[in-house]
Design goal:
The chain is 84% helix and 0% strand. It has 9 helices and no strands.
Length: 227
C-alpha cells in the first residue's frame, strides 16, 4: 500500500508521458481494490455504510475550519514568499492542470473525492492495520508517518525547496495524526472526511493563487470559455 502510493505519485510527477500515467493509474486501482479484498477475504468482515452523526459533523467541521485557517494563514504569512510559482506552473503544465477550467475540475475531484479516497485508504485500512502492530496511540503516529511519505514526494516535485518540503511534511504528518486520532476516537470516517475536505479546499485555493496569480474564478473561467 505505502510503496504503491509512493511509486504511483513519483511516476506521475517524475515520469511524464504514457508510461508514468499508466503506472500512476495502476497503483491507484491497486490501493483502492486491495483494502476491500483484504477486508472481505482475509478479515472476513462485512462492509457497512452508516450516515454521519451530529457529533461527526461537528467534530469534522471544527477541526476542518481550524486546519483551513492554519493552511491559508501559513501560506499568506510565509508560504507565498517561499514557493516559486514558476516551478508549480511547470509541473501543472506537465500533468494537464495549467488552465483554469482543467484546474477547477481537478480541484473539485481533489477536494471532494480524493479526500474521501485517502480516508478510506489511510484511516479505514492502514490505521486499522497499524493498530494490529502497535497500541492505539502509537498507531496514530505510525499511520501518520505512512500517510506522509507519498506527500513528501509530491512536495519535492512541486517546490524543489527543502524548506517547503520539511514544513509541508511536518504539516501533513500533523494532519494525518489528527485524522488517525479522529478515527481512533469516533470509529467513523465522517469526521476525518469533513475536516480533510476543508483542508484540501485550502490547498486548492493556494494552488489557484500560485497558478493564476490570484485571478478571480469567474473572470478566468469566462476568459477560457469558447464564446
Amino acid at each position: 500500500m505505502i510503496s504503491a502510493a509512493s511509486c504511483g505519485i513519483a511516476a506521475r510527477l517524475y515520469r511524464p508521458g504514457i508510461a508514468g500515467q499508466f503506472l500512476f493509474a495502476a497503483t491507484r486501482v491497486w490501493i483502492l481494490v486491495f483494502p476491500l479484498i483484504w477486508f472481505l477475504r482475509v478479515d472476513r468482515r462485512r462492509a457497512t455504510l452508516s450516515p454521519p452523526s451530529l457529533r461527526d459533523v461537528l467534530a469534522g467541521t471544527i477541526l476542518g475550519i481550524f486546519m483551513f485557517s492554519v493552511i491559508l494563514g501559513t501560506y499568506c504569512l510565509a508560504g507565498q514568499y517561499w514557493i516559486d510559482p514558476e516551478i508549480v506552473r511547470a509541473k501543472a503544465q506537465q500533468i494537464g492542470l495549467a488552465n483554469p477550467i482543467s484546474y477547477l475540475l481537478g480541484a473539485i475531484y481533489f477536494t471532494f473525492i480524493n479526500s474521501l479516497v485517502e480516508e478510506y485508504i489511510w484511516r479505514w485500512f492502514v490505521y486499522q492495520k497499524c493498530e494490529v502492530l502497535v497500541s492505539g496511540n502509537k498507531a496514530v503516529y505510525l499511520a501518520a508517518l505512512c500517510f506522509t511519505l507519498h506527500h513528501t514526494i509530491a512536495l519535492t516535485a512541486y517546490s524543489r525547496s527543502w524548506l517547503i518540503v520539511a514544513f509541508g511534511s511536518i504539516g501533513v504528518f500533523a494532519a494525518g495524526a489528527v485524522w488517525s486520532w479522529c478515527y481512533l476516537r469516533y470509529r467513523s470516517l465522517w469526521a476525518c472526511y469533513i475536516s480533510h475536505l476543508l483542508a484540501d479546499l485550502a490547498i486548492a485555493l493556494i494552488g489557484w493563487d500560485l497558478l493564476f496569480e490570484g485571478a478571480l474564478f469567474a473572470g478566468a473561467l469566462v476568459h477560457e470559455l469558447p464564446i
